[in-house]
Structures are given as C-alpha cells and as structure tokens.
Design brief:
Layout: H1 8-11, E1 12-23, E2 26-37, E3 41-45, H2 52-60, E4 67-72, E5 75-76, H3 81-86, E6 88-91, H4 103-113, H5 118-131, H6 147-159, E7 165-169, H7 177-192, E8 196-200, H8 204-210, E9 213-218, E10 221-226, H9 228-235, H10 242-249, H11 256-263
Helix pairs in contact: 4-5, 4-6, 9-10
Bound molecules: adenosine-5'-triphosphate and magnesium ion (MG).
Length: 264
C-alpha cells in the first residue's frame, strides 16, 4: 500500500469526534475526542460516573450521541450500526443473559446471531469452555451458575465470533486468578494479531500491566491520555505507579482525611 492510500480508517479502529451525551442535567460525556489505533489495548479509567460506560455504549452504537460522531473500523456508527455491531465483541458492565437457558444454549444462540457456521461455532465454544474451566457445566441452566461463571459465558459470547474490536466494560470482574490470567493473555495475543480493545477497569494493576495506553476520564472529559511513561511525566511522578498518578490527576490524592472522618 502506498502512503497516499493510507486513510484514517486504516490507522484507527475507533475515532470519537466531539462526542457528548447528556441525561437531563447530567453531562455523562462532554465533547470527547479520542482515537484508538488498530491492535491497541486502551484502558478506560475514571471515578464512578465519569462516563466510561456511556463512552463504550456510544462506540457500540446502543447510545446515540447528542453531538459529534463515532467512527468504528472506518464506518460511521450512526450510518450503519448493524455492520459495526457484527464486528464488535461487547462485555457489558452488568450483563443480562438468558438465565433460563443452559450455558451451551446461550452460546449456541449467540453464535447464530453472529452468523457463525455450525462447525466453527462448535469448535470455538468447546475451546473456550475448556480454557475457562467451564467444561462439564455447559449443560446446566445459567441461573445455577456462580457470578464468575456467568461472567465467563459473557466473555465467551463476546469473543467467539472473532471480532475486530472488543469493548469490555470491567471484563475481569468476578473471575478467579487463573481465568483472569487466561483472558489477559488472550487479549494481548489478539492485540498482536490486530484486534483492538477498549477496556474499562477500576483495577489499576490490570490497566498498568495490560494496556498500551490509558485514558483517564473525569466528569465526562479526558483528563489524561497516554502510555504509563507519558502519564508519569504529566503527573510529574516519574517513579509512581498508576494508583498514585490516578489519585493525583483526579484530585483525590489525599484520602487520609476522608478515612479519618469515616472512622471517628
Ligand atoms: N441511562 C441513564 N440515565 C440517566 N443517567 C445516566 C444514564 N447512564 C448514565 N447516566 C449518568 O451519566 C454519568 C456517567 O455514567 P457512566 O455509567 O458512563 O459512568 P462510569 O464511568 O461507567 O461509572 P462506573 O465506574 O460507576 O461504572 C453518571 O452521572 C450517570 O448517572
Ligand atoms: Mg460504568
């Protein structure tokens, strides 16, 4: 490919341009500009209510922005939401899955929704059930699963159709250490194959260990964006870990008085 033919769509998996969302008096996302490169893992951090889930939902196309536009894999989400959704894997923060189905029935149904062939669907489901230690429980009703088991089913349903973009809202919550490690390694491997991930998390060690770049949101805005190194520079904390940087940048650095007040 020559230089002249490289377009924005080739370089960026996701581009948000001046995107806002208001709910009544609350501004959930405030004129957000953000570009995520192909094959990048972007960590979305921020205090509760800072706009992470709303941002993810606007990228997916299930929340319509009040201003601006979202481009995903070269497609304007507002123009062609169905095509975009086909190419995305989504783990919502509070997944609602059909509890009256078995794990296998749910995954089978999900595979059909994505138009997977019978053979591919069977193979992918078997591989994932084995990798995430769900083998033997796939015939049980989802209502009988533990929270972590339900989360695993949701993760499988997001990954099984080989999406090009993963939107993961707190994906590792509830997973035991071995399963969390498998998912983390898998995401890194997928990234090396060109799969892009936007992942929200409150577990800063996960963000620090896994993400190529980290976006810190605050009141619907981007407070900081960069690699760990860049964030350290911005916070003028060259030796610090992400937790201290996060607390400083979000203006919540001194938590001691708060704890003292609560324990009086
Ligand atoms: N459907 C909705 N109706 C009304 N307000 C909403 C809705 N969804 C989000 N909000 C508001 O928008 C703001 C941002 O919410 P959002 O869920 O994006 O935050 P978040 O960063 O994902 O928080 P958390 O870390 O708690 O998951 C919050 O003030 C929230 O109350
Ligand atoms: Mg959220």
């Amino acid at each position: 490919m020559t230089q002249a033919t490289i377009t924005t769509a080739d370089l960026h998996a996701v581009k948000l341009m001046g995107v806002s969302k208001r709910y009544g008096n609350v501004t959930a996302v405030d004129y957000l500009d953000l570009e995520v490169k192909k094959g990048e893992i972007l960590g979305l951090l921020g205090p509760n209510g800072s706009g992470k889930s709303t941002t993810i939902k606007m990228v997916l196309g299930i929340v319509k922005p009040d201003t601006g536009a979202v481009n995903v894999l070269g497609i304007n989400v507002g123009d062609d939401p169905i095509t975009v959704k086909r190419r995305i894997g989504y783990v919502p923060e509070a997944p609602r899955i059909y509890e009256f189905l078995t794990g296998l029935e749910f995954l089978d149904f999900t595979g059909d929704v994505y138009g997977m062939s019978l053979e591919e669907k069977k193979r992918r489901i078997e591989e994932f059930l084995k990798a995430l230690d769900l083998e033997g429980r796939e015939g049980d009703m989802i209502s009988s699963y533990s929270e972590g088991m339900k989360q695993k089913v949701v993760i499988i349903s997001a990954l099984m159709h080989r999406p090009e973009l993963l939107l993961l809202d707190e994906p590792l919550s509830g997973l035991d250490p071995k399963s969390a490690r498998i998912v983390k390694d898998l995401l890194r491997e997928l990234a090396s194959q060109g799969v892009t991930t936007i992942m929200s998390t409150h577990v800063l060690e996960i963000a620090q260990a896994m993400c190529d770049r980290i976006a810190i949101m605050y009141n619907g805005r981007l407070l900081a964006l960069g690699t760990m190194r860049e964030l350290r520079q911005k916070a003028k904390m060259p030796e610090s870990g992400l937790e201290d940087i996060f607390l400083k940048l979000t203006g919540t650095g001194d938590v001691k008085p708060v704890v003292e007040a609560l324990t009086k």
